[in-house]
Specification:
140 residues; 12 strands; elongated; three-stranded antiparallel sheet; mainly beta; five-stranded antiparallel sheet; Immunoglobulin-like
Length: 140
């Protein structure tokens, strides 16, 4: 009977291999500038369209005040007020669409144009520009 010889691996080699396998399942756009009423095309190159997609937003290009950007929503005038849309998701590309009024979106509190993270008010007014970072992971 013969046995396959499995070489000893260091923790660093194992970590590097796991990181490489995980990287093949992920896409990170890095921070990019955005403004209202604009479409941004991103190439994720993951080869599938079953994806978990999260968009983060920041007023700063280094992401120092990072928060999740939620799906765009209607305001009382039926305009898409704030947040973003992820659209045209394919096996290698997707589009991020910003609405008319705010790239970060309004908060859940009525009659207030500010934006909240938890109970902390982050921005007193709607932001027409900022930065997004798109994280995409293969599902399954």
């Amino acid at each position: 009977m013969s046995y396959a010889v499995i070489p000893n691996r260091t923790d660093a080699e194992i970590d590097a291999r796991l990181a490489a396998e995980e990287a093949a399942r992920m896409y990170d756009s890095g921070w990019f500038a955005v403004s209202t009423d604009t479409i941004y095309s991103k190439t994720h190159g993951l080869g599938v369209d079953e994806l978990l997609i999260i968009v983060f937003g920041s007023a700063n290009s280094n992401g120092s005040d990072c928060h999740k950007v939620y799906q765009a929503h209607h305001d009382s005038s039926s305009d898409y007020a704030g947040g973003c849309f992820v659209d045209d998701v394919g096996t290698s590309t997707l589009e991020i669409k910003t609405p008319l009024q705010s790239v970060f979106g309004q908060n859940a509190y009525p009659n207030d144009d500010g934006w909240y993270w938890g109970n902390e008010r982050k921005y007193a007014t709607r932001k027409t520009s900022g930065y997004y970072r798109v994280i995409v992971r293969k599902v399954g």
